[in-house]
């Protein structure tokens, strides 16, 4: 097997800029961490996999013209997959692409921490991949629980995501952890 991991950049796309829940407050730290990860991956020759979400929602439809990377995302990538469900494996060919290259470890980054990033980490683990979940290179937004009305901020959601993934589906790590290990 390849000793190189692949970096999955999930749904870092312009569609989100038009979502009613979009907030800028956590974007600067997310951008800094993701760019650090991507710059190091490119320098080390790690495959960078761009994944874009496409569905029938107005801003996520192909016709919207918004299913493209955010302007600050580097052009460099090895392959692009378009997904139509929450995880990056089900309908994309990603698993085959990784297996054909002997890649058995994925590094998960992107938007939203508890949705497409978490779901991708779980499926990757179930498919036999080792998973590094780099929380600081993921982004999410506050949510309100429909039943109780409790508001959860982005950090609460990220912490919960780490809780349910750690040691079961993924290794929770920072960008520096990933770079030190590979």
UniProtKB/TrEMBL annotation:
Is Manganese given among the entry's keywords?
no
The residue ranges of the Isochorismatase-like domain are 6-141
One MF term in the entry's GO annotations: hydrolase activity
Q: Which UniProt keywords apply?
A: Hydrolase
Family matches, as SUPFAM superfamilies: Isochorismatase-like hydrolases
Q: Where are the transmembrane segments?
A: none
Report whether Mitochondrion shows up as a keyword of the record: no
User: Which InterPro entries does the record cross-reference, listed alphabetically?
Assistant: Isochorismatase-like_dom (IPR000868), Isochorismatase-like_hydrls (IPR050272), Isochorismatase-like_sf (IPR036380)
* Listed PANTHER family: ISOCHORISMATASE-LIKE DOMAIN-CONTAINING PROTEIN, PEROXYUREIDOACRYLATE/UREIDOACRYLATE AMIDOHYDROLASE-RELATED
The protein's name = Isochorismatase family protein
- What organism does this protein naturally occur in? Rhodanobacter glycinis
């Amino acid at each position: 097997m390849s000793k190189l991991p692949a970096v999955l950049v999930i749904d870092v796309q312009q569609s989100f800029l038009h979502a009613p829940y979009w907030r800028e407050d956590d974007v600067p730290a997310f951008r800094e961490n993701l760019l650090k990860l991507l710059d190091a991956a490119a320098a080390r020759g790690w495959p960078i996999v761009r994944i874009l979400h496409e569905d029938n929602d107005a801003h996520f439809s192909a016709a919207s013209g918004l299913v493209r990377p955010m302007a600050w995302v580097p052009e460099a990538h090895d392959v692009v997959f378009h997904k139509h469900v929450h995880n990056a494996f089900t309908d994309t060919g990603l698993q085959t692409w990784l297996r054909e290259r002997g890649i058995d470890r994925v590094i998960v980054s992107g938007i939203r921490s508890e949705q497409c990033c978490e779901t991708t980490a779980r499926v990757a683990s179930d498919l036999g991949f080792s998973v590094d979940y780099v929380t600081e290179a993921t982004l999410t937004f506050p949510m309100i629980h429909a039943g109780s009305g409790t508001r959860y901020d982005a950090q609460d959601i990220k912490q919960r995501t780490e809780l349910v993934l750690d040691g079961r589906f993924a290794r929770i790590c920072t960008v520096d952890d990933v770079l030190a290990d590979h």
